[in-house]
Amino acid sequence: MIKNDLFLRALKGESVDRPPVWMMRQAGRYLPEFMELRKKYDFFTRCQTPELASEITVQPIRRYGMDAAILFSDILVIPQAMDIEVQMKPNFGPYLPNPIRTKDDLEKVIVPNIQDTLGYVMDTITLTKEKLNDDIPLIGFAGSPWTILCYCVEGQGSKSFDKARGFCFTQPELAHQLLQKITDTTIAYLKAKVKAGVNAVQVFDSWGGMLSPTDYQEFSWPYIQQIVDALKDESPVIVFGKGCWFALKEMAISGASAVGVDWTCSAKNARYLSGGNITLQGNFDPARLLSPPEKIKTMVHQMIREFGKDKYVVNLGHGILPNIPLENAKAFVDAVKEYQE
Ligand code: CP3
To answer: N or C: which end of the chain has fewer CB within 10 A?
Structure first.
C-alpha cells in the first residue's frame, strides 16, 4: 500500500482534500545535486546505471516532497533499443547520426526484446521503489510513437520537425510501418515497467501539436490509442500532448485515466473540450516559475480554483526549465500543499 495515494486517487477521479502535485521533468537540470552527478557521468550512463537513475529520481522528492516521483530516463531509450543510434550531445541535445528516411533504413529497425535491451530500466524501478519506501507512487513514461518518429527521422531536435512531417506526407506507408514498430516496442516496454512496479504511466506526445488536427488523427492519435488500449487494464495511463487541445475529446474517451494540458488552453476550455468528467493534469506555464514566489503561490491557488480540486493533478504545462530558482520550484509545490477550499 502506498502511504500518500493522493495522486492515484485523483487518477481514479475520487474526491480529495487537495489535488496532488508533481512537475514534468522534475528530475533534472535545475537541481544542484543533479548537476553534481552530471559533471561526473554522461547522460546515458546516468540513465543506464540503476544506482544513479534511482538517485536522480528521488532527488526532487527529498527536496520538495512532491506527491509522485517520475523515473529518471529518457523517451529516446526506445529508438536506442530498436537499434537506432542515439547520442546526447552537450549543449546540443539528442543526435541520431543515422536517421530513418528510406525503406532500407526502416528494414534495419528492430522490435527488440525488452529485457535484453531495457532491462536496466526495470532494475532502476526495483531500486527506486526501495528508496521510495511506498511513500508515494512512481510514474513510468514513454514518448508517443509520433514524437519518437520525429527524432528518428529528423535526426535531432527541431522547432518544427519539417523532415519528419515531410516523411509522413511523402512516404505514408513507410511512416506507418515505423510508427507501428515503435508502438509495438513501446507497449511491451510500458507493460514491463508496470510489471517491475511503476504505479502509473504517462505518454508524452511532445510534438503532437506540430501536426494539423487531421494529420494528428492519422499519424499520432491511433498509435497512442493502441498504447492506452494495451495498458489501461494494468495501470492508470496519462496522455499528455503539447499543443494538442484539439484532441482533448479523443483523449478523454480513450480509456486513459487522465489527460495533460499545456498552458495555452484555459482550465475552462480544457474541461469543456474533454467533456467535464476526466481527470486533467497541468497547466502552469513553466516560464511562470520565474515570477516571484509570492506571485507563484497566488497563481497556483487561482489555477486550482479554475480546474477545481477534484479530478485534477497540479503540474506544469510542459517540462520545468533549467534556470528556475530553487525557492520558486518550492513555492509551486508548497502552494498546492497549503491549498484550502
Ligand atoms: O521528468 C523527469 O524528470 C524524468 C526524466 C525525463 C528526461 N527526459 C530526462 C532528461 C523525461 C520524462 C524526459 C522526457 C523527454 N525527453 C521528452 C518528453 C518530455 C518533453 O519535455 O517534451 C523529450 C522530447 C525528450 C528528448 C530530450 N531529452 C531532449 C530534447 C533533450 C535535450 C534537451 C533538454 O531538455 O535538456 C533530452 C535530454 C534530457 N532528458 C535531459 C534530462 C534531464 C538533459 C540532458 C542532460 O542532463 O545531460
So the answer is: N
Ranges of each domain in the chain: 6-337
Residues 39-76 pLDDT 10s: 999 999 999 999 999 999 999 999 999 999 999 999 99
Catalytic annotation on 223? Answer: no
Model confidence pTM above 0.70: yes
Give 25 Cα–ligand 1 centroid separation in angstroms.
7
Distance 69 CA to ligand 1 centre (A): 15
Catalytic residue among 9, 41, 63, 74: 74
Parallel/antiparallel/unpaired status of strands 200-205 and 237-241: parallel
Order of strands across the sheet with 312-316?
69-70, 138-143, 200-205, 237-241, 258-260, 279-284, 312-316
Name the nearest CA neighbour of 144 among 72, 69, 226, 50: 226
Q: Is 312 among the residues known to form the active site?
A: no
Cα(17) to ligand 1 centroid in Å equals 32
**What is 6-337's CATH topology?**
TIM Barrel (3.20.20)
pLDDT at position 6 is 98
pLDDT digits (tens, 9 = 90+) for 248-299: 999 999 999 999 999 999 999 999 999 999 999 999 999 999 999 999 999 9
Out of 29, 123, 135, 215, which one is annotated catalytic?
29
The protein residue with its alpha carbon nearest to ligand 1, atom 28, reads: 74
